[in-house]
Amino acid sequence: MTSNVRPADMARITTVELANAFIDQQIKELRSQIGDKKVLLALSGGVDSSVVAALLIKAVGKQLTCVHVNHGLLRKGEPEQVIEVFRNQMNANLVYVDAVDRFLDKLAGVTEPEEKRKIIGAEFIRVFEEEARKLDGIKFLAQGTIYPDILESDGVKAHHNVGGLPEDLQFELVEPVKLLFKDEVRVVGKALGLPDNMVYRQPFPGPGLGVRCTGAITRERLEAVRESDAILREEFAKNGLAGKVWQYFTIVPDYRSTGIRDGKRCWDWPVVIRAVNTKDAMTATVEDIPFSLLQHITDRILHEVKGVNRVLYDMTPKPVGTIEWE
Ligand code: XMP
After folding, report:
1. Per the domain annotation, does 7 fall within a domain?
2. Residue pLDDT, tens place only, 15-29
3. Which pLDDT belongs to residue 152?
4. Are 219 and 186 within one domain?
5. Low-confidence ranges of the chain (pLDDT < 70)
6. Which residues form the domain of 65?
7. Whose CA is nearest to atom 11 of ligand 1?
8. pLDDT digits (tens, 9 = 90+) for 269-301
9. Are 180 and 258 in the same domain?
10. Pocket test for ligand 1, best of 73, 212, 250, 323 (most atoms within 8 A of CB)
């Protein structure tokens, strides 16, 4: 296994040429590490695990099995994109697990944020474990660990965390991007031919939309989060904000207010828009969105998202507010 320390003379990967050299080197190393054995990867569709999948597909093809767990808390279109890119375009072995009901049943009635996170994390490991047990002869577990994960924590990141697997499922680790910084992973992803919206994706928490559907998650409110988030992302992309704003999303709090729709009173949820800029997520400032764009997004959300009768813009910097609401 290679060292967890980035050599002082390692050049920063900033160009396609440097990325291609890294890819060629990794393919050699992966082939020599893996030989003719089998590798398993939890593929979330985020940039890190996607780059690891694409590297392994190039290096060992069908010896890799990717498991994509749809826990029902992904953004609109994400599971479909994972299937399209990896199964249809890259011809990978991809096991798609529809675990939506399982996760939402476990989360029903749970209001406490850390409890929600714990349930999502534990259930993810359980689903992944079940899939791993169905496969024979797996020797390696690939992970999208990147260098900041090693610097900042124990090297196992929350949303790739399958480190909770039981004793008899302890595989040897394969971590081909563990010495890279995020910007380098993106350059490598681009060179590997991954789509831009996968490579330049904004940060997305492991518990996904679950922390943006505050309090007890219900299917209806979760759908309102997913649909309003899709509208916000579409409008930010159209208006040149997608690559500019660090993180932007919507929240649907567990609180209703009165409104009027088609001449009748309604009792519906608000959608809160959050758009922030930061360097390290420790502090954040609020993006100055043009008022006309806010009005247009409000209009679309009110007309296109079921069960919503109000749209608010969160003006709170971090501190005092955290970036997520839970
Ligand atoms: P906060 O809300 O603490 O968020 O200001 C800082 C950054 O971390 C992300 N975040 C998470 N990421 N698992 C993750 O993988 C989590 O449980 C989690 N909670 C927050 C958040 O989206 C922001 O980028």
Report:
1. no
2. 999 999 999 999 999
3. 82
4. no
5. 1, 154-161
6. 16-199
7. 205
8. 999 999 999 998 999 999 999 999 999 999 999
9. no
10. 323
* pLDDT given at position 162: 72
Cα–ligand 1 centroid distance for 276 (angstroms):
13
0.90 surpassed by pTM: yes
**Rounded Cα–Cα distance for residues 145 and 236 (Å):** 29
User: Is 10 within a domain?
Assistant: no
CA of 99 to the centre of ligand 1 (A): 23
For ligand 1, atom 24, the nearest C-alpha belongs to 203
pLDDT value at residue 45: 96
Q: How far is the CA of 108 from the centre of ligand 1 (A)?
A: 22
